[in-house]
Amino acid sequence: MRKTLLTVSLFALLVLSGCAGSLTGTTDSRASVPLEEVTFPEGTNESGIENRQTVVNNHDDFLADKNYEATFEIRRDRGENTTVIRSVTESNLDTRQLRVRMERGDGTTPALFVNETTVFRKQDMSGTSSLYLVKPRKEVGFNDTRHREWHRENTWSNDTASILPTSATELFRTVNYTETEAYRRDGRTFIEYRFHQDNYTWFPVDATNFTSIAVIDERGLIHRITHRYTLSKGNKTVRVRREYRVKVGSNVTVERPDWLGEAYEQSKGRS
């Protein structure tokens, strides 16, 4: 997918749930708003999302100078067991810190942490000890512009691990939304786009009961995209949920990971 700091594909984010100034999601109360009273962000209208890339670009532009926390999750329920793949990115421009945490569902947890001077990368593969890469920000080109635009990346891979798509574009292109609703909550207007189809043919295997919801506010910030569907092959059935959500606010904090000490020690041993 894409080159990163240390020739490793990056993780990216985009999308989904929060307001500037303070983290959102504090209340579930909402009041319906007539669509004719809504100022639709560029790329959208009362009928649906007409230009997906414009919506994604506007979302990116909004996040460029904000502190944010973005989460991407794939949950697969096979009845007898459930697997979850999750990635969380926290970015604080004031402290110049960025952290990416990932759970791959196999017990491994690759990660990235960036502070004012240094980039730390944790490569975690099943059956082996963690490998840490420690480099100065300047050496790997992780400048302030790169920090601000981190959310524009759209993939993350971990060496031989399978690539995990994490882009709003990838989610949007699977759906043509057919229903629109607007509501007001916490002083802000949200537009909710919905789609449902009993049998959906986009997937290479049979997909049934496909439902998607995308929530965007009047500023163009994508708060959430959620896909739910069922995959069937032979006598096996898997219920899947793919979701992006984002929180934006001045109180987003980036915690120092507990593996930094080990990363320093390992890097000294290689020098």
Task: Give a topology summary.
Blueprint: E1 31-32, E2 44-45, E3 48-49, H1 52-63, E4 68-77, E5 82-92, E6 97-103, E7 111-114, E8 118-123, E9 131-136, H2 137-140, H3 144-148, E10 155-156, E11 164-165, H4 168-172, E12 179-185, E13 188-200, E14 206-217, E15 222-233, E16 236-248, H5 260-270
Antiparallel strand pairs: 1-12, 2-3, 4-5, 4-16, 5-6, 6-7, 7-8, 8-9, 10-11, 12-13, 13-14, 14-15, 15-16
InterPro entries: DUF7537
Which key phrases capture this entry?
271 residues, mainly beta, 12-stranded antiparallel β-sheet, two-stranded antiparallel sheet, 14% helix, disordered N terminus
Outline the structure in words:
- The chain is mostly beta strands.
- The chain contains five helices and 16 strands.
- The protein has helices at 52-63, 137-140, 144-148, 168-172, 260-270; strands at residues 31-32, 44-45, 48-49, 68-77, 82-92, 97-103, 111-114, 118-123, 131-136, 155-156, 164-165, 179-185, 188-200, 206-217, 222-233, 236-248.
- The strands form three sheets. It has a twelve-stranded antiparallel sheet with strand order 1-12-13-14-15-16-4-5-6-7-8-9, with helices on both faces.
- β13 (188-200) and β14 form a beta hairpin.
- 14% of the residues lie in helices and 41% in strands.
